[in-house]
């Protein structure tokens, strides 16, 4: 049974699940140096993704389109080749507590000149199914709570077990966009107007708040305005909650909230305002979750939690929930945001047929490296992992490209820039070449068995989705991966992993005694990962590129020769 999941809107992607196994997920932003959050505006992208794996649309048994905005149904205006078509889909959320797996069935999916029928499940359904089906709880058949908090919805708590899932409650009346909206009103990303929405601001704020301190007086201001405008019995709050199914009024109410906050906080430093707002939201989330878990204590099974939705990328909130003692285990997939929605769409159909079973999957299921024409000006030579470790030990960063790309927004060693973490200047250097702000952190990628010695808690974290503190005795040894508040967005790698980055870390440890490197994404500013070594060469900001056994080294600038040719990396 082949199921093809399609996410058409931002973070567009195509995923294929065959007999319970993820075959691939191709995110639009990871093709052809596309911009971040790229949508699918032409269905030829679906045909192309299938063709790269030797498949024709007729080889697919079921197509599934992720739902989107709409009370009863959503609509998509797309191209099929050169012709415009309109497709209908399920709404953003299910219409009743038991309706998570209710689908809208449609026809008119035009692929390669042929019409196909399709199903569509609510957008939140894909978040629930992708989070649970990839979790360790699914493998053992254990039930789990599932928190879904997306940009335009309140945090929704579900309960999932093998035979089905249902909505338990909304935790509190705050849409997920509130975090990014805070950055549009305070700090370095402040804007004069309300337009030109930037989806990336929320992640940057997580770094920026390390510059500030939590001020309880500021927290009190946010608590009072939260009651007045969102949660209380006031007319203003009641009107806000009544309009929650309309995205524009909800977002307008959030902007009004921050404008009222700014009046009362005009004399406060923006970094303290944002740090305090983060603390307010984190406390609200943990408190509401604790109350909900107690309210639903009658539900049987282990106390497990899956986290999904765009807010699942907030590593500090994830850590706060894990450390609260409410759950036996907490799982966040590497694609909690909409980058996992195509997988979720396919999983929704799988679950509708088989119940909430586990999905066999690998995080390295993205696009394979392409063969590309390399520009002149680069030397090419075979390079072993030991030799590459020596390059890194000499304090030279390397673009590291291998195998298939990782899923989700984090670079996890397949499309990474790696560097020694022993120099305090390396973080600034990497931020400069990536055109990033000085306060942005660079993540450590570390051998799993040694992580507890360097970080607290240092528990296994293969997808960089929790917060860790760097232990005091290591801060001077690896300063490039220590954030301003002493934290680190850690990725751990098992020594037994077959991925090439594990072999490199082992060789680097043998050479230096240090089991970690700096890790940041290999990409053009504002775009997805490099699809091939040629794109990294054209970018040209890092002088060494390792691509599946070959080291490319930028040669000193010389006058081009008329006979200069191009290399092909195979």
Total number of domains: 3
Which class of secondary structure composition applies to the elements? Answer: alpha+beta
Evaluate the radius of gyration: 24 Å
Mean pLDDT across all residues, rounded?
A: 94
Q: Would you write up a description of this structure?
A:
The protein is globular. It starts with a strand and ends with a strand. Residues 558-570 have low confidence and may be disordered. The longest helix has 26 residues, at 270-295. It has an 8-stranded mixed β-sheet with strand order 15-25-24-16-17-23-18-22. Strands 3-2-1-4-8-7 form a 6-stranded mixed β-sheet, with helices on both faces. A hairpin with a 2-residue loop joins strand 10 (156-161) and strand 11 (164-170). The chain contains 16 helices and 26 strands. With 570 residues, it is an alpha+beta fold. The chain folds into 3 domains: 2-128 and 337-361; 141-332, 2-Layer Sandwich (Nucleotidyltransferase, domain 5); 368-554, DHBP synthase (Alpha-Beta Complex), CATH 3.90.870.20. Helix 4 (178-185) packs across helix 8 and helix 12 packs across helix 15 (500-512).
């Amino acid at each position: 049974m082949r199921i093809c999941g399609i996410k058409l809107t931002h973070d567009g992607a195509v995923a294929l699940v065959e007999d319970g196994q993820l075959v691939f997920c191709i995110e639009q932003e990871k093709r052809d140096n596309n911009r971040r959050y790229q949508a699918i505006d032409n269905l030829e992208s679906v045909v192309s993704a299938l063709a790269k794996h030797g498949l024709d649309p007729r080889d697919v048994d079921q197509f599934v389109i992720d739902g989107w905005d709409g009370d009863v149904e959503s609509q998509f205006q797309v191209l099929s080749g050169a012709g415009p078509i309109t497709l209908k889909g399920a709404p953003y959320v299910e219409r009743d507590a038991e309706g998570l797996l209710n689908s809208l069935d449609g026809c008119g999916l035009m692929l390669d000149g042929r019409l196909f029928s399709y199903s569509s499940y609510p957008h939140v359904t894909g978040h629930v199914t992708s989070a649970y089906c990839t979790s360790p709880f699914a493998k053992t058949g254990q039930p789990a709570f599932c928190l879904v908090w997306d940009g335009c919805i309140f945090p929704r708590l579900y309960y999932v077990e093998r035979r089905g899932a249902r909505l338990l409650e909304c935790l509190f009346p705050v849409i997920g966009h509130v975090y990014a909206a805070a950055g549009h009103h305070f700090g370095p990303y402040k804007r004069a107007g309300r337009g030109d929405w930037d989806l990336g601001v929320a992640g940057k704020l997580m770094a920026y708040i390390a510059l500030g301190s939590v001020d309880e007086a500021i927290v009190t201001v946010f608590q009072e305005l939260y009651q007045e405008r969102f949660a209380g019995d006031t007319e203003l709050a009641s009107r806000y909650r009544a309009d929650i199914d309309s995205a524009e009024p909800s977002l307008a109410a959030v902007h009004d909230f921050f404008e009222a906050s700014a009046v009362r906080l005009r004399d406060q430093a923006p970094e303290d305002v944002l740090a305090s707002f983060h603390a307010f939201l984190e406390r609200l989330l943990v408190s509401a979750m604790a109350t909900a878990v107690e309210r639903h204590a009658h539900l049987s099974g282990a106390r497990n939690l899956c986290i999904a939705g765009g807010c699942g990328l907030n590593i500090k909130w994830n850590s706060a929930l894990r450390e609260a003692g409410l759950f036996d285990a907490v799982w966040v997939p590497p694609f909690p945001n909409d980058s996992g929605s195509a997988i979720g769409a396919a999983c929704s159909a799988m679950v509708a047929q088989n119940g909430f079973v586990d999905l066999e999957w690998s995080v390295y299921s993205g696009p394979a490296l392409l063969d590309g024409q390399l520009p002149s000006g680069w030397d090419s030579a075979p390079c072993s992992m030991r030799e590459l470790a020596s390059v890194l030990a000499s304090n030279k960063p390397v673009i590291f490209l291998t195998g298939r790309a990782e899923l989700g927004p984090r670079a996890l060693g397949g499309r990474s820039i790696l560097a020694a973490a022993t120099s305090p200047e390396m973080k600034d250097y990497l931020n400069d070449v990536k055109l990033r702000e000085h306060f942005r952190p660079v993540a450590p990628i570390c051998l799993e068995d040694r992580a507890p010695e360097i970080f607290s808690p240092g528990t296994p974290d293969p997808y960089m989705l929790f917060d860790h503190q760097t232990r005091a005795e290591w801060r001077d040894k690896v300063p490039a991966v220590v954030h301003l508040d002493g934290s680190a967005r850690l990725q751990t790698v098992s020594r037994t992993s077959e991925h090439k980055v594990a072999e490199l870390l082992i060789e680097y440890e043998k050479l230096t005694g240090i089991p970690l490197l700096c890790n940041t994404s290999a990409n053009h500013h504002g775009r997805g990962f490099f699809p091939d070594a040629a794109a990294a060469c054209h970018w040209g900001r890092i002088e060494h590129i390792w691509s599946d056994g070959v080291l490319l080294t930028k040669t000193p600038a010389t006058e081009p020769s008329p006979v200069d040719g191009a290399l092909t990396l195979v």
